[in-house]
Design brief:
549 residues, 6-stranded antiparallel sheet, 24% strand, alpha+beta
């Protein structure tokens, strides 16, 4: 393959690597390596190994405790475990930045350039359902994959945005404990993995990427709380986008410093000499750039990466928290469909305010539903005849005045266990209902793709649960479930969208559950979607965009 590499690139690499250049070039002709990362929100590595036919064939990725190499020829994306969100298929070196971010449960974390969502799901696994994850990408078409991967992983404490760093910084000043900037870059580290990146490299200049990266870092710095940690990473070898970018940032932000990374696992220290003369830095701060790391493909089993850990001086102070409590009040959120009024209640408490005029809400709901699904690429639930009749066990609206949140609570009382004790606050945007992290501030003025964990929608007086609700549940949180092995024909038929017939003995039903209605379909104990059960038949509710095609 190395004969296809741009001449300008190879000449630059020869100057950069010196005696190691031939080994570097040989790596392009070596077999690729493949990786997946176990989803800690669902299970651990050893538990998955016991469940999977691949369990004895995988090898550990040394810098990622949940990461595993798998053999070429395996097809983990076609396995039911993929559809259950048990793992994410990810290039091995791309797992390093989140490990360096050192995320702890309960923290507030921003993934600023997040699509397609691999690193966001890795962060979510480390948060373990507590704290706040704000995940963003400024390219609208890329947020479709981002939202879907967040939902597939069963993340319950995230919001998904589609906005520019400057707009987000205005809403979250000094708010985050951790920020990841996996910056848009020239992508030189992806040449072996994806030939199309070579053509992209020739179209997009390193200078253009560097200017974009600098702007992103400036706004990210404004959002990091004192004492917080920020990881900057790229998948390129270019010094202009790596060491020189860090040097420029340090020169402009005296309250930030490099937190040194020990170069293990075949990693190499960053090179301060590549940043000499690029910024007004004293010698100590310039040399601190050696505390960043480069991952070279001829030294590790993975593609190329660069990473730097930046720490902000000081400690978080109470004034940073001001205004957060006010977020339980009525807010407006700028989405693709315009500014919508929202109703907010704590998930375990009373309704705070009554809704605005119902005619306005219905008009807003139509706009929001249309645009929300357009943003994410997911199938819009259909309005069915007889929706208000309560058939199939859907939660009824007895008064025709019940709000979407009230309908959600009615549904949850029937089909979920202890839903009112789930952390967060319940919010409604038009007819759609979400559960948000309680400490999230107002998202007023931002383009919001997912305002929290999307649990479902009120349609013609009843509540229809969402697929993301199913994926975020544990099996024992549903009053009715059915479970088949991943190798069972019933599992495959469900993932293909077929209607299923079951014996009552196959079901797990909690006391007090309705005789018919929604059932959580699981494989190897993990949810893969909803069905509607009645008299031995399960009507398939898996959205078309999530099916095994």
């Amino acid at each position: 393959m190395n004969g296809n590499l741009p001449r300008n690139f190879t000449e630059k690499m020869e100057k950069l690597l010196g005696d190691e250049f031939d080994s570097f070039m040989s790596s392009y002709d070596a077999p690729r390596v493949y990786g997946l990362r176990i989803n800690r929100l669902k299970l651990g590595v050893e538990q998955w190994k016991k469940l999977s036919d691949m369990g004895e064939e995988v090898r550990e990725i040394p810098w990622a405790p949940d990461g595993l190499y798998y053999k070429e020829g395996e097809r983990p994306g076609k396995h039911p475990h993929y559809h259950a969100g048990l793992y994410y298929i990810q290039e091995p070196s791309a797992m390093a930045p989140v490990e360096l971010l050192d995320v702890q449960p309960g923290q507030r974390v921003l993934d600023l350039c997040a699509a397609p969502g691999g690193k966001s799901t890795q962060i979510a696994g480390k948060l373990q359902g507590s704290g706040v994850l704000v995940t963003n990408d400024n390219a609208r078409e890329r947020t479709k994959a981002l939202a879907k991967n967040i939902e597939l992983a069963g993340v319950r404490n995230a919001v998904v945005l589609n906005d520019e760093p400057a707009a987000i910084a205005a809403v979250f000043p000094q708010w985050f404990d951790r920020i990841l900037i996996d910056a848009p870059c020239s992508g030189e580290g992806m040449f072996r993995k994806d030939d199309s990146m070579i053509a992209e490299w020739e179209k997009h200049s390193i200078e253009k990427c560097s200017l974009m990266q600098r702007d992103i870092m400036q706004h990210a710095a404004a959002m990091l709380a004192p004492g917080g940690r920020m990881v900057y990473s790229t998948c390129t070898f270019s010094p202009e986008e790596n060491e020189q970018q860090i040097a420029q940032f340090l020169a402009e932000h005296e309250d930030f410093f490099v937190e040194a990374i020990y170069p293990q696992h075949g990693w190499r220290a960053g090179r301060a000499d590549l940043a000499e003369g690029m910024a007004q830095l004293d010698e100590e701060r310039l040399q601190s750039i050696q505390g960043t790391v480069r991952l070279w493909p001829h030294l590790i089993e993975g593609e190329g990466h660069y990473a730097a850990v930046l720490r902000r001086s000081g400690e978080r102070t109470s004034n940073i928290e001001e205004g957060v409590a006010a977020s339980v009040k009525r807010q407006s959120v700028q989405s693709a469909g315009g500014s919508l009024k929202r109703e907010v209640v704590p998930s375990s408490g009373k309704r705070q305010e009554k809704k605005q005029d119902h005619r306005d809400e219905r008009r807003a709901a139509k706009r929001q539903t249309r645009n929300d699904f357009a943003n994410t690429g997911l199938e819009r639930p259909a309005n069915k005849k007889g929706a208000g009749s309560g058939r199939d066990g859907a939660a009824m609206n007895p008064t025709k005045e019940a709000s979407p949140i009230e309908l959600w609570h009615q549904y949850a009382e029937q089909f979920a266990i202890n839903a009112r004790s789930w952390p967060g606050r319940v919010v409604a945007f038009g007819s759609r209902v979400y559960i948000q992290p309680a400490e999230l501030p107002s998202l007023d003025g931002l383009r919001v793709v997912r305002a929290g964990w999307y649990v479902g929608e009120a349609i013609r007086g009843r509540f229809e649960p969402s697929h993301p609700l199913a994926m975020g549940l544990k099996r024992d949180e549903a009053v009715r479930s059915v479970n088949w092995r991943s190798s069972d024909e019933q599992t495959i038929r469900y993932l293909k969208g077929e209607t299923l017939f079951v014996d009552d003995s196959e079901l797990t039903v909690h006391a007090g559950a309705p005789s018919k209605g929604y059932i959580l379909v699981c494989t190897d104990g993990f949810p893969i979607g909803w069905g509607k059960y009645a008299a031995g038949m399960i009507k398939n509710e898996l959205p078309a965009g999530w099916r095994w095609m």
